[in-house]
Amino acid sequence: MLWFSETGGDGGYLFHVYVDEDAPPPLHSKAIVVDSFDAFSIPSGRLCICGAEYAANNPLAGSQFTPKGGLSVYSGMGGIVELAAGDYHLELLEIEWSDEDWDSAQEAVVPKQQLRHHRRLDILMAFCFFIGVIVLLFSTPFLLITLYNYFLESPNNCSMTQVQDLWLPTLSMLAGGLLLGAGLLLSRWHSHSAVSRLLQMVEREMPDYVLIAYKI
Fold first, then answer.
1. What total number of domains does the chain contain?
2. Is 4 inside any structural domain?
3. Based on the domain organization, do 192 and 147 belong to the same domain?
4. Which of 39, 50, 72, 178 is the most buried (most CB within 10 A)?
5. Are 75 and 121 in a shared domain?
C-alpha cells in the first residue's frame, strides 16, 4: 500500500518514526498534524519512507522508473523501518522549529564562543568560493583573448608589452584557483571538526517530520 503526503517543496527532510509509542512531549508542542491514515496495511513488516521518485515494489533495488539502484545506492534519500506485519494507524506530524529553538539546542552542546567561530568560518568559506568563482569567470576569457592575440595574430612580432599583458589574467586565474582551493580545504576541515559533529547530533534530534504508528 502506498501513502503520499506533500512536504511543500524540495530538499532534505529528517523523519523520526515511533512505533506503538507516542512522540516525546517537546515534539508534540511544536507539531502540526499533516495527515493521518486509520488502517494502513504493512503485510511485509517493512515500512519505506522516501521521495516519490524512489517508490517501487522494492525501493532498495529500484525499478526502471526510479534512479538506478534505488535506495541501496542512494541510501540518504530514504530508509526502511522494520516492524511487525499488520495494519497500523498512522499519523504524520510536521515539526515547526523556530530560530530560537535551533540556537538554544546548539548552545546547549557547543559553547557560544566556539559557535561564533564556527559561523565565521561558514562566512569565510562562502567568501572564498564566491570570490574565487567570480575571479575565474572574468580572468579566464581575458587570458584566452590575450593568448589568442599573442600566439595567433602576431606570433613573430612579440613585444615586451604583449608579454606583460599576460601577467594580469594569469595571476588573476591563479588567485581565483587559490581561493577555490582554500574554500575546499576549509570546507573539508569544517565538516570534520568536533563542533560540526556536535551540531550534527543536534540536527538528528530535531526532525522535520514525525511518523507515529500504532498497530491495530
1. 2
2. no
3. yes
4. 50
5. no
For residue 110, give the DSSP letter: S
Residue 80 and residue 133 in one domain: no
Q: Angle at CA 192, nearest 5°, toward 129 and 27?
A: 100
Report the distance separating Cα 84 and Cα 49, nearest Å.
16
Verify that 144 and 182 share a domain, yes or no.
yes
Distance of CA 52 to the CA centre of its chain: 18
Phi, psi of 20 (to 5 degrees): 55, 30
Any idea of the CA torsion for 83, 85, 89, 93, to the nearest 10 degrees?
30
Q: Is the pTM of this model over 0.85?
A: no
Report the alpha-carbon distance of residue 88 to residue 101 in Å, rounded.
32
Quote the domain boundaries for residue 134.
105-202
Residues 133 and 87 reside in one and the same domain: no
Residue 76 shares a structural domain with residue 138: no
In a domain, 5, yes or no: no
The answer on pLDDT for 75 being more than 90 is no
Question: What does pLDDT average to over the chain?
Answer: 84
Tell me what pLDDT residue 206 has.
93
* pLDDT tens sequence across 109-161: 999 899 999 999 989 999 999 999 999 888 888 878 777 776 665 555 555 55
Report d(CA 74, CA 68) in Å as an integer: 9
21 within domain boundaries: yes
Give one word for 108, left, alpha or beta, with left for phi > 0 and alpha for psi -120 to 50: alpha
| Residue 8 pLDDT exceeds 80 | no
Quick check: 128 and 178 in contact, CB under 8 A? Answer: no
